[in-house]
Amino acid sequence: MNFAFGTPSSIIFGAGTMEQQLGAQVKKLNGSRVFILTDPGIAKVGILEKVQQILKKEGFEVGVYDQVVPEPPIETVDKIAEEVKDNAYDLLVGLGGGSAMDVTKVVSILVTNGGSARDYTGSDKIKKPGLPTIMLPTTAGTGSEVTKIAIFSFPEEEVKKGIVSPHLFATAAIVDPSLTYKLPPNLTAYTGMDAFIHAAESYISKNANKFTEGLSLIAIDLIAKNLRTAVSDGDNAEARYNMSLGSLIAGIAFGNAGVGAVHAMAYPLGGQFHLPHGLANTLMLRYVMEYNVVSCLDKFAVIAEAMGENTEGLSVREAAFKAIEAMINLAKDTNVPTRLRDVNIPKEAIPKMAAAGINETRLLSNNPRKLTQKDLEDIYTNAW
User: Which one of 17, 32, 46, 101 has the lowest number of neighbouring Cβ atoms within 10 Å?
Assistant: First the structure.
């Protein structure tokens, strides 16, 4: 089987690496005027101020945009890119969760490629590299620091769409688990489940290969064994370390193998009802996996083992269904809802969501079992 594999040029991992490496990486990339993109929550807890201090101490000029919102509207990016151009910033830092990092990626290419972010929706429409970017994730979840994908909401259509290009890979990713310590339990759970689903969906993806499969299983193991502790004891350094590592590895895996119907069916929940991405994914996890399991029993049995389930003496089918049970328990134990009604999604919305979900062909093409629009409606109905 032939396959291509891509990652950022440099990945630096470990507690304290932000303080140790950020200035050195900016110098290595010949940056002098640095623009930080983040969200109000990161500014509020003091992480932004710390990053600014590190950069200013090294003598860099520093600008900030701290109003990135979850599920960012596509128009946000164009306005920020104009500010970057007008002030001649030469390096961007994405500080935060997936939204801040996704905005950073696309701002970087708008500065050099021109046009509007809408022009690049879809795959491989970006002609040349953007400004150098350094990603500093503050959650253990999205994996955006190591992917070539950026996701945005299109409010007028009530959908989410992606921009995909190798030019969106960060120049450097600094993954410092200590930046996740201030993440509250609910966001730890949502983002951790997102990372788990990246690992699980990439493992069963039709585009998986021996390289990505190994990464997916490592991530499944790390996240299944550490998410409960990270949620219940956010100061546990070992759990935070392993969650950041699991999220990073899952990001590399799904960034190359892709994800499937869980994500495709979560996008309408985000686009129409503005649910957090990890929550939307978890709402669909059980019901999509129950649909998928018969198409790859062997792989689901391996997932069960990677999650620490005892499969000794079980048939492959029994072990496979034990994996789904373990996924449900992981969500329940971290207090993440698993039914649409629990988050007030009306049953009447199902046909519209299915009509939107079936158009997520980039994702559905990775799913191990084919789906029709009727299948999507049935899965949403089961999830309600």
Answer: 46
pTM: 0.95
**Does domain 10-180 bear CATH number 3.40.50.1970?**
yes
Q: Which amino acid does the sequence have at 325?
A: E
Residue-level pLDDT at 1: 67
**Cβ neighbours of residue 67 under 8 Å, at least 6 residues apart?**
39, 40
Dist CA 316 CA 297 (whole Å): 6
Read off the amino acid at residue 308.
G
Ranges for all domains in the chain classified under CATH 3.40.50.1970: 10-180
CA 72 vs. chain centroid, Å, equals 14
Identity of the amino acid at 138: T
Which helix (H) or strand (E) is 48 found in, with range? helix 47-57
User: What is the DSSP-derived secondary structure letter of residue 87?
Assistant: T
* Residue 113 pLDDT: 97
Strand order in the sheet with 172-175: 10-13, 172-175, 133-137, 91-96, 33-37, 61-65
Structure tokens at 84: 């970057």
Element of type H or E holding 160: strand 159-164
CATH 1.20.1090.10 location in the chain: 185-383
CA dist., res. 292 & res. 232, Å (int): 31
Return the CATH superfamily for domain 185-383: Dehydroquinate synthase-like - alpha domain (1.20.1090.10)
Query: What does the pLDDT read at residue 7?
Result: 84
155, pLDDT greater than 90: no
Q: What tokens appear for 373 in the block?
A: 């629009």
Burial 35-56 (b: 16+ CB within 10 A, else e): bbbbbebbbebebbeebbebbe
Q: What is the mean pLDDT of the chain?
A: 95
Which residues have C-beta within 8 Å of that of residue 336, sequence separation ≥ 6? 189, 190, 193, 278, 279, 282
| Structure tokens, 366 | 């990775």
